[in-house]
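User: Here's a protein and a ligand (S-adenosylmethionine). What would the complex look like?
Assistant: Let me lay out the input and then the predicted complex.
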Amino acid sequence: MTPQEINNILIVDDILKSVPIKTEDAEFIYNFVKEKKVNKTLETGFGHGRSAAHIIAASNSKHVAMDPFQESEFNNT
Ligand SMILES: C[S@@+](CC[C@H](N)C(=O)[O-])C[C@H]1O[C@@H](n2cnc3c(N)ncnc32)[C@H](O)[C@@H]1O
């Protein structure tokens, strides 16, 4: 899956309280993970999952993410 395909599926409202990363930053992460062939990833700050979606798509492997505000700010989405 490409960053463009992810952005067509993952609709994130930028007006929400905790601003997600920008699409161009997500694309940078995607290209970095793919180029470096990263396959073990740990993320602090899952939020709406935009970065996680790009990491998973680029690495095609298991991704671990944590966020202490996932329930209170993101309704566990
Ligand atoms: C700018 S948002 C980025 C969210 C997500 N990575 C994305 O792709 O949009 C920062 C995230 O970090 C989380 N956060 C804040 N303090 C944290 C902490 N101490 N440990 C882990 N995550 C934290 C917030 O809840 C929020 O989801």
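Summary: The two ends are 21 Å apart (CA to CA).
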